[in-house]
Write a structure and sequence with these properties.
Blueprint lengths: L1 E4 L25 E5 L8 E6 L4 E5 L1 H10 L5 H10 L6 H13 L8 H14 L3 H8 L2 E7 L2 H14 L2 H20 L1 H10 L3 H28 L7 E6 L2 E6 L10 H28 L4 H21 L7 H10 L4 H18 L11 H32 L2 H28 L7 H18 L3 E12 L2 E4 L5 E6 L6 E2 L4 E6 L1 H22 L5 H5 L1 H24 L1 E3 L4 E4 L9 E2 L6 E4 L4 E8 L11 E6 L7 E8 L22 E5 L5 E5 L3 E8 L9 E13 L1 H17 L2
Parallel strand pairs: 1-4
Antiparallel strand pairs: 2-3, 3-4, 5-6, 6-7, 8-17, 8-23, 9-16, 10-12, 10-15, 11-14, 12-13, 14-16, 17-22, 18-19, 18-23, 19-22, 20-21
Helix pairs in contact: 1-2, 2-3, 6-9, 7-10, 9-10, 9-11, 10-11, 10-12, 13-14, 13-16, 14-15, 17-19
Length: 721
């Protein structure tokens, strides 16, 4: 589809005047139709090129020239006849119009110059396979059917579906569907999450094909209802993802913007109707394949309509609807032109007239729309580039990533810089402010002012012991209090186990009885005969008593190291304790250490011996002055500190791998190294482990250098070089 407006002469390049300029012959197949008025209310017409399916908008002056064209043989004669009919036309206006119709191939080719122009245009459209791929892999179309004659047969049924009773019924069904979703919200969300899998993706893809087919059919039927021609329908590929399309170019000849708005919104309304019907069916149907199918249709229709089609920033239905609602044809190019002019005036104050005469309110609205579109497209193209990178093999992914970033982000910026630099920039207040701001930005980017590296870290005691009961037991006596400092070997808790005491007393009595029988075996024939058995029994009882005494001794818990007691909960005497219940943490008071983690791209900026400062996250602990003691030579595979893991809100990206029912390991990504730091001065440790950040003194580096180094490291790592 080609649409445009025939520009005024002052926007076209000048040509030297000549005595006589022959007027080329317009093609006989061109059609002239009345169009909707312009934004300022001026009447407009459209000139339709049926060969290319292009529409060109004409104001009243252009219309007069086109109507008089066939009656004149030279440009001078055309200008004179137009002035004779009262039009304000200069010869330069006629020359500009001639150059425009020749550039768009709206004239009959007769001379060798005409054929050369067509040949040059055809050669310019041709490209090599690589160039075609770079320009078309993002979006291209494949027409499949010519549905125009079949749509006539479908129109009567389609009109009944959008009759007033049908619309009222659909509204009632929408209320019922909303009631079902609210009543069964947890079931609805649970079903959505359950199908977020590869199998669910396949079902959603099938539902998307059905919904989009109905979407495009809705466009085609409404366009046909207003008498427009629908030449083709087919498949468009967006980043190699197939989606259906309808060629509704003929709607440009509709005089009423509201009619074009109805055509643009027909697809969305069709999808919303499917969503309403599918939601109601989901609420009524029992569990089974039909209910799942209704769910897929409902969620697919809602999501694609609200998240994709209604977006005004890409040329989908939302864009065309907004264009028709505002009554501005070619909305994005005209908004971009206004915004570029607005930016140039704000930055340099050229004093130029705007490219189009809009009201102040409409101009500000177009500027806001353009800025929103640029921001939206920046993140969209960045996401597409990342998508291409991840789904292609690495080298191709990197290449396409670079191409997209250049083509869609850097290239427009470079073109604008080239356009501004080609002009004579005036020296005024706005230019001075812009230069100062530019120097500040360049200074922030390229002056090495970043001299410190911030790393996630953990401050922990040099030694730490968690105390647990050796077995199920009852607390007999507690000898320490919270935050009390203890020495190594000091008794902390005394536990008791009645079963041990009972078994120990019983075993001792049995031991005495066995010893007594052995002592009188000389006077007892029976004991003398069982002497060997009694000695074995004696050994068993002695071993049993030794084990029981060892268990009883372990119930008297002593401090394995000197340190401070930290109790997670208060205990009381007589309380039964489980072996999994922690009694206390014993934190060494002798020294501390810090483990920090640095990414590969910042590894060169962390040097052993550098000064550092630990800053706790909780704010209740003091900062600690440190120095770097050592850096691991190889990357760390496992992370022993869950508080730093991304899975639990930390800064380090990890992947958890299950090894058992209740266990898992946190595996760090490649290129993360552990840095060990020690305090400059020993000090008491309140808690055995404190999360925070470490600010390490390193070589100064500019922000641009850091970005370049990070990008280079990612490219080298991901490309496998």
């Amino acid at each position: 589809m080609h649409t445009g407006e025939i520009p005024p002469s002052h926007l076209l390049p000048e040509q030297p005047p000549a005595a006589e300029h022959p007027l080329p012959e317009l093609r006989a197949d061109l059609r002239l139709n009345r169009s909707a008025p312009d934004t300022d209310g001026a009447p407009m017409w459209t000139l339709f090129d049926p060969l290319r399916g292009g529409y060109f908008h004409l104001h009243l002056g252009g219309l007069r020239l086109i109507r008089l064209w066939r009656h004149c043989s030279t440009q001078e004669e055309l200008a004179a006849r137009a002035r004779a009919e009262g039009a304000v036309v200069e010869l330069s206006d006629v020359e500009g119009l001639v150059r425009f119709v020749e550039a768009n191939h709206l004239v009959v080719a007769k001379t060798a110059q005409d054929y050369q122009r067509l040949s040059d245009a055809d050669a310019g459209r041709k490209s090599t396979g690589v160039n075609w791929l770079l320009h078309h892999y993002l979006f291209f179309r494949v027409p499949l059917v010519r549905p125009d004659r079949y749509l006539e047969g479908l129109l009567p049924a389609a009109r009944r579906l959008v009759s007033r009773p049908a619309r009222i019924l659909l509204l009632c069904l929408a209320l019922i569907g909303g009631y079902f979703v609210v009543r069964q919200w947890s079931d609805f969300v649970g079903t959505l999450l359950r199908f977020l899998s590869w199998e669910g993706v396949l079902w959603y893809a099938l539902a998307l094909m059905i919904v989009k087919s109905a979407h495009e059919l809705g466009h085609a039927l409404v366009a046909k209802h207003y008498g427009c021609r629908v030449p083709t329908m087919g498949v468009a590929f967006l980043v190699m993802f197939p989606m259906l399309y309808t060629d509704a170019t003929d709607t440009w000849r509709l005089e009423n913007d509201r009619d074009r708005l109805r055509v643009a919104m027909a697809g969305v309304m069709t999808e919303l109707s499917i969503a309403v019907l599918a939601t109601v069916c989901w609420g009524f149907l029992p569990e089974g394949p039909l209910r799942q199918a209704a769910f897929f249709l409902a969620t697919t229709s809602w999501m694609t309509s609200l998240l994709v089609n209604l977006s005004p920033f890409m040329r989908f239905d939302g864009y065309h609807a907004l264009s028709d609602l505002w009554g501005i044809r070619n909305l994005q190019p005209r908004a971009f032109a206004i915004t570029r002019w607005w930016l140039r005036e704000r930055l340099f104050g050229f004093g130029e007239s705007p490219p189009e005469a809009f009201t102040r309110r409409r101009r500000h609205l177009l500027v806001l729309y353009s800025i929103g579109t640029w921001v939206y497209r920046f993140f969209l193209f960045l996401g597409i580039a990342l998508l291409v990178y991840h789904f292609a093999f690495k080298v191709l992914g990197i290449l396409l990533f670079v191409v997209e970033i250049y083509w869609f982000i850097l290239r427009p910026i470079m073109n604008e810089i080239r356009e501004v630099s080609s002009r004579r920039i005036p020296w005024n207040t706005r230019t001075v402010v812009t230069c100062i701001a530019g120097c500040l930005v360049l200074g922030l980017l390229f002056i090495p002012w970043q001299g410190r590296v911030t790393l996630p870290a953990v401050l922990e005691a040099d030694a730490h012991v968690a105390l647990f009961p050796p077995e199920p037991a009852r607390l007999k006596q507690q000898y320490v209090l919270q935050d009390e400092s203890v020495r190594a070997g000091q008794v902390l808790y005394e536990l008791e186990q009645p079963e041990i005491e009972m078994n120990l007393a019983q075993s001792r009595r049995q031991l005495q009885a066995v010893k007594a029988r052995l002592a009188r075996r000389a006077g007892s024939a029976e004991d003398l005969a069982q002497q060997g058995v009694l000695r074995n029994r004696l050994a068993e009882l002695e071993a049993q008593i030794s084990g029981l005494e060892s268990r009883a001794h372990s119930l008297v818990m002593r401090a394995p190291i000197a340190g401070r007691i930290d109790m997670p909960e208060a205990l009381h005497e007589g309380q039964w304790l489980d072996p999994r219940q922690q009694l206390a943490d014993l934190v060494s008071q002798r020294s501390r250490r810090v483990h920090a983690f640095v990414r590969e791209q910042d590894l060169e900026r962390v040097i052993p011996g550098s000064e550092a400062l630990f800053i706790p996250d909780d704010g209740s602990h003091d900062t600690v002055a440190l120095h770097v003691r050592s850096i691991d030579n190889i990357g760390t595979e496992r992370l022993a500190y869950p508080g730093l893991a991304s899975r639990y809100g930390g800064p380090l990206p990890v992947e958890e791998r299950r090894r058992g029912q209740n266990s898992g390991s946190l595996n760090l990504e490649d290129g993360i190294y552990r840095v060990t730091m020690v305090p400059d001065h020993d000090a008491p440790v309140r808690d055995w482990q404190v999360y925070g950040k470490v600010s390490v003194e390193g070589p100064a580096e500019s922000l641009a250098g850091a970005i370049f180094r990070h990008a280079a490291s990612v490219l080298i790592r991901e490309s496998g070089f």
